[in-house]
Amino acid sequence: MIALDQVSILKPGFFRRDPIVTEATATFHRGERVGILASPGTGKSSFARLLSGIDQPDRGSVHREGRVSWPIGFAGFLHPALSVRDNLHIFERLVGMPTDATVEFCSAFCGIPGVARKMMQDLTPTQRAILAYACALSVPGPAMWIADEVISVGEPFQRKRCDAVLTQRLSDGGLVFLSRNVRQLKQYCDRFYVLINKRLVPCDDLNVAQDALDLQKTNQSELI
What we know:
Blueprint: E1 2-10, E2 19-28, E3 33-38, H1 44-52, E4 59-64, E5 68-72, H2 84-95, H3 101-110, H4 125-138, E6 144-148, H5 156-169, E7 174-179, H6 182-188, E8 191-196, E9 199-203, H7 206-223
Parallel strand pairs: 3-7, 3-8, 5-6, 6-7
Antiparallel strand pairs: 1-2, 1-4, 8-9
Helix pairs in contact: 3-4, 4-5
């Protein structure tokens, strides 16, 4: 479970710090699949990092019960100058996993021969994306999974594998999925919010929410 109480996120800076998200209050329960519709540049990734615990709110509070995943596919911890194995050992220490547990899972999931021995900088962008995705799914039993736009990666056969493993992981956990894609949100989620005008607003109809976001974008363009 993740509970937000009057949470605000401000843009980084030393002087003026404009709000990204203002006074968000919501509760996401284990077992729920919640979709948040958000346009690019509206704080979607900042909000995902906040939910997962990577970042802290500037105002308000976040209460979590049970394990919460990193954003699925988050690759910010992967260092290009290290080997894949060294990166995965760092990840294991960060999330409290047994040594080599993530290495074994990712090696099997990625399907890349000898991936643990490779240098991170030698992987293709697609291989790095698959590795980051596998890292998130290697952590057993989070109460809540967080997804920021990325819900599956790779070629069609790899995406099928991603969907199968994620479905298994979600069998006893919840999902908060932030995306600009209405179709994907409808596919994976059954309760919805929209991030609009720096507010997190409950939403019954994603098509109406998308129309509101489009209108907001048009009005902002006319003011420029």
